[in-house]
Design goal:
The protein is α/β, with parallel strands linked by helices. The chain is built from 15 helices and 13 strands. Helix 6 links the parallel strand 4 and strand 5. The structure holds iron/sulfur cluster (SF4).
Length: 422
């Protein structure tokens, strides 16, 4: 039995009582729009699939014709999705321009960077993606600012602070303000452990644009058990609700498993998000990485992917409730495909640069060499030169070629250059 810590929420949040796994879940409305090719052309909203400049064209269109693109749902008046900066900002312009330069191989970098500013965390999740990583060598405030500056020079629009638990770091407000000063969009993924009202207000004052809280289950007791902290679900929901009330854009992020799909948890999360005033719900696919790296039996089936895809593709008929983004849908090569080393990269608390948070392979350390050099090395790798593929970390062939060649006792992320090429 693992240790369970207890925290007290500021006050009990009514929506945070959570659902009941045994209660029948009322399905949310989904409508599959007609004409697959045409709907995908439009719904993708990021331009015609597989064409150069498609991403930038799509960003241009969704800003220019808000709410008029067929088969679409926007996260808010000024956001198509929280994964792209708000319309009309310099960060948004930079994402469009950076996408053009990237597609023409003229120097644009990733549109978004997830920056893990710490590996420290009060939770003890069974699915932690940071397993087997060093807990030492957290980059200094000045080093983190230098990394942020280099991201902006590479035309990155959104910088997403993650961890560990990013709010455990004393300078997280300073870093949020710095991202804002650099005219990029500061976002944060948190467990909600520190989301007292006074601290939510500080996040707003520092200029945080989007606050995502990660929830494992819409049932309070289940969530607290997987995180090892009693009361965390209630506190996280209370924090989310208050953040939305004071004008921070809010999102819930979760991941789908065989069990959660069979219990329709994505739909319970949708209802919870609606109650909390959340604008976007992101549903990742469970990915064998970190503590789960050997658990390939957890990979979702094609029926489960289809259920999740329908939730995103069929949501345009709903006028209320959060926008749903499911990676099952977005990772189709005919939609966006794998984001890694293209639209996004991940940087660990000790400076290692990986294609995404889930990929335990690095291409260099930004504390030792410029980010632009590492980015170019990553982009030149034969695997990442491929045009559009689905999620690599869920692809058995990618796992055979790269992930299974990581020595079982090696610290992660592992250097890509040490993986023997076939
Ligand atoms: S491998 Fe690609 S699609 Fe899969 S989680 Fe990473 S970036 Fe996303």
């Amino acid at each position: 039995m693992k240790d369970i810590k207890t925290i007290e929420p500021e006050k009990e949040c009514s929506a945070a009582r959570g659902g009941d796994a045994e209660t029948e879940v009322e399905s949310i409305p989904v409508y599959r729009p007609p004409l697959k090719k045409i709907r995908r052309f439009f719904y993708r909203n990021l331009g015609p699939p597989r064409m150069p400049l498609a991403f930038s064209l799509g960003c241009f269109l969704v800003e220019r014709f808000p709410q008029r693109i067929p088969f679409t749902k926007y996260a808010s008046q000024d956001h198509y999705t929280f994964y792209i900066p708000p319309f009309g900002t310099k960060a948004y312009r930079r994402v469009i321009k950076g996408g053009i330069l990237r597609d023409l191989d003229l120097g644009g970098g990733p549109s978004a960077v997830t920056l893990a500013i710490t590996a420290r965390c009060p939770c003890s999740c069974y699915h932690c993606s940071a397993d087997r990583r060093s807990r030492k060598n957290e980059m200094s405030t000045e080093a983190a600012k230098d990394v942020i500056r280099q991201c902006v020079e590479l035309m990155t629009g959104s910088i997403v602070l993650t961890g560990g638990e990013p709010m455990i770091r004393e300078d997280h407000l300073e870093l949020i303000s710095y991202i804002r000063d650099m005219e990029a969009t500061p976002q944060m993924f948190t467990s909600g452990y520190f989301l007292e009202n006074s601290r939510v207000e500080m996040l707003k004052e520092a200029g945080l644009d989007v606050l995502f809280v990660s929830l494992d289950s819409p049932i309070a007791e289940e969530h607290d058990l997987t995180r090892g902290i009693e009361g965390l679900f209630s506190k996280a929901c209370q924090g989310l609700k208050y953040a939305a009330q004071i004008g921070i854009r809010t999102g819930i992020s979760t991941f789908a498993t065989h069990e959660s799909v069979s219990r329709k948890y994505p739909e319970l999360f949708f209802r919870l998000g609606e109650e909390l005033g959340v604008s976007e719900l992101t549903i990742f696919d469970v990915t064998p990485t970190g503590k789960l790296i050997d658990k390939e039996e957890m990979l979702l089936t094609s029926e489960e992917h289809r259920y999740l895809s329908d939730l995103q593709e069929g949501q345009f008929i709903r006028k209320t409730g959060p926008k749903i983004v499911t990676m099952s849908y977005v990772n189709y090569p005919s939609i966006i495909g794998c984001f890694g080393a293209k639209y996004q990269i991940h940087i660990t608390h000790d400076g290692y640069v990986t294609p995404c948070d889930f990929t335990p392979l690095h291409f260099g350390n930004v504390l030792e060499e410029p980010l632009s050099v590492i980015w170019n090395r990553m982009r030149a790798h034969p695997e990442y030169r491929k045009k559009t593929v689905s999620c690599r970390m869920q692809d058995p062939e990618f796992r055979r070629r790269y992930i299974k060649k990581i020595p079982p006792d090696a610290q992660l992320p592992y250097p890509m250059e040490r993986i023997p090429m076939e």
